[in-house]
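Minutes, project check-in
Item: structure for the 84-residue chain
Input as provided by the requester:
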Amino acid sequence: MDEPTSGLDARATAIVMRTVRNTVDTGKTMVCTIHQPIIDIFEVFDELFLMKRGGEEIYVGPLGHNSCHLIKYFEVSPNPNLIM
């Protein structure tokens, strides 16, 4: 899905993301592109493929509870300019 929440208000966004989550819970795989998601949307996802400008991959993997895996990855990153 390409930007499924763009232009939606908070209520409509919640409905769309609940539908995405319900679909995933049936065993289906969903792929969404979302730019600058709010935390409520971000936490719906199990896995993240994060790219920086130019399309370079900088993180691929699970988010973990409260994004703990993603946070740990960046805390121990040897390159502080990784996302710039």
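Outcome recorded: The CA atoms of residues 11 and 84 lie 33 Å apart.
No further action items on this chain.
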